[in-house]
Amino acid sequence: MIVRKLTRQITLGPVPVGGNAPITVQSMTNTDTRDVEKTAAQILRLEKVGCDIIRVAVLDLAAAEAIKKIRALIRIPLIADIHFDYRLAIAAMENGAQGIRINPGNIGGKEKLAKVIAAAKQHQVPIRVGVNSGSLERDIQKKYGHPTAEAMLESALRNIGLLEGQGFHAIKISIKSSDPITTIAAYRLLSQKTDYPLHLGVTEAGGLIPGTVKSSVALGILLSEGIGDTLRVSLTRDPVEEIRVGYEILRALRIRVRGPELISCPTCGRCQINLFALAEQVENHILFFKAPIRIAVMGCVVNGPGEAKEADIGVAGGHGVGIIFKKGKLVKKVPEQRLLPEFLAELDQYEDNFYQEER
Q: How open is the CA angle 352-357-359, to the nearest 5 degrees?
């Protein structure tokens, strides 16, 4: 059993982060924030796959003002991502941002930071101190030579101090590198130095496969050590994939379960069905399911049900026929051409029953 480090708790709108609150999964939109309709549509899609918190880029005043309209169309807390311009941070909060992400050291100096803090206190908005290995202060970069874990820690503590020095403590911290090993080391050091809630992530992780691997290694190790209160899996993909990978990491560690789990065999010489297509079609069908069921897609009618007997429901096929089984027991035998629609209908029944139980 994972023993999680107890951190302070902050709230982003109605969502608690830190303390004993569930570890949240978040993402960031890749739309132009000024395009309210497109941005809200993407957020609503992310909500359907379980996104708990969303972040949007605020590049100018128009983007900050768009937050108010976006907030009216979505349900989850919205964080404004700000770089350099303190006025945008203030405008974002005035327009309803429930959290902001800044680097206090590059927001324009002590007086401008004081104005941001005053607005955060007025609107009861937490601040995420975001430290990335690629944007360390020049003196720290010079001191360490390159962005080591120790360099990132020093930058994080310096920026936290800027907020604490003005009496602000509603803080969340991220300390990200594109290198998983550096990321792990940096978060370990930071966790020993502070009890603020930590936002986990590997920055610039890459596309679906490398990004998933890097994030799973770094976040999985940290979470298994009890470090981390919220996470984002950064991928050069549709943000929906970030949420899916995030939940799979939490599921694998038995920290938090949401929606169905799909297991499928890797195929072998016994496979007599296009299992790749079958598994992909099932995976796409259950993308927005909420029912916590275990689904098996197997390629061998001989061994499939036995190998996946712990699954709530499964399918296996070959030689022109297919079977649908539940808890390893055969419940239906159908021609191969009817296998997919019959199986999807069974899955829909699980989801319908889940919704009825929720009501």
A: 100
